[in-house]
Amino acid sequence: MAETPTRAGFVALIGEPNAGKSTLLNRMVGAKVSIVTHKVQTTRSRIRGVALEGQSQIVFVDTPGIFKPRRRLDRSMVAAAWGGAADADIVVLLVEAHRGITEGVSEILDLLPDVTKGRTVALAINKIDRVAAPRLLALTQELNDRFAFEHTFLISAEKGSGVDDLRTWLAEGLPEEPWLYPEDQIADLPMRQIAAEITREKLTLRLHQELPYQLTVETETWEERKDGSARIDQVVYVARDGHKGIVLGRGGETAKAVSRAARLELEEFLGRKVHLFLQVKVRPGWLDEAERYREMGLDFDTPD
């Protein structure tokens, strides 16, 4: 009997900020590869997570949320999101069931035909546990009247409802290709960047208001030690002197708590001991430095 052919390809998850893209990616992959917080616009670069389903290797592109850009960083994030959609084999639009067709979702629907021309596009209505069935059916009809989706899935990324059906459908729809990554690889981000993202998540969870969008984290050095542990030195860049005090906290309490939480998650992720050291540095113009954007995997020169 002939062997079942392998399949491989890219699936872009797009939608408004906080639609549940990162939660869905992490559930699909079975490990945490993308930041998940209650704050919007936390995913900055196109994070690729790799999932296996039968003979198929699904490479998920978790794009930044699509929203109205105000700053250079915003423009780069939105450009990355649409770039991920344009490059993918399959695009999945996530819409929050309880919010329905917002102004942002409506704008995405208007742009979908041009950006996804020639690609398979599916709809995933997320957070279905928050609304009654009649409202779900009405929303499904309304969205499909706006765009001819190949398939519609009703899911809860957080609880897992409907996710298996979506993953099976995606696996069957990918082109017949050799696998793109080794079987045991779950993400194509360098570990240095994953470590920085983990620390940035802890900062985002700990801090409030606008500050999380005014900081970035970079892994400066990664030293493999003879005892099997790793020493990781990271820098938190903030835009103002006042922000440095907020990140550090009274007596360095906030930075210590963030470092401890990030270290514990890194140890679990890597399966070994980690020594994590954080510094906080003020760089007033980091939001306009090309190097910072390269570290985040974003294009610096994004048109207005």
UniProtKB/TrEMBL annotation:
Residues 15-22 are annotated as: G1. It is a peripheral membrane protein. Residues 62-65 are annotated as: G3. GTP binds at residues 15-22, 62-66, 126-129. GO terms for biological process: ribosomal small subunit assembly. Residues 41-45 are annotated as: G2. Belongs to the TRAFAC class TrmE-Era-EngA-EngB-Septin-like GTPase superfamily. Era GTPase family. NCBIfam families: era (TIGR00436), PRK00089.1 (NF000908), small_GTP (TIGR00231). An essential GTPase that binds both GDP and GTP, with rapid nucleotide exchange. Plays a role in 16S rRNA processing and 30S ribosomal subunit biogenesis and possibly also in cell cycle regulation and energy metabolism. Monomer. This is GTPase Era. It comes from Tranquillimonas rosea.
